[in-house]
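Input.
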Amino acid sequence: MNCNVVETKSFEFAVRIVNLHKYLKSKKKEFTLAKQILRSGTSIGANIAEAQQAQSKADFIAKMSIALKETAETKYWLRLLLATEYLESKEFQSILFDCSELERLLVSILKTCRQEEK
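Output.
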């Protein structure tokens, strides 16, 4: 259950989310949405890291499924930040692309794991 690519990408994404959080707080004076995106965006990688220490395949799938759910939540907060003009379209598209890439990777990993269970 080697996930080096998804681990690396999720860590890099978390760094982007932390920087977005800092930007929202310092430049835009937005605290509530900034905290929400910080929680969901960094949780993706944390759950992927935790999945690497899974006690079973079912545990691995559960942790990776949580990471996938966190990508959906993060995409929601990103769309909200765009709609409320805290993010410009260019910034939004860039970070949304990275989030969507993580989502695709997680879906692929989960499909493979579930097929192996059958």
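The chain has a mean pLDDT of 95.
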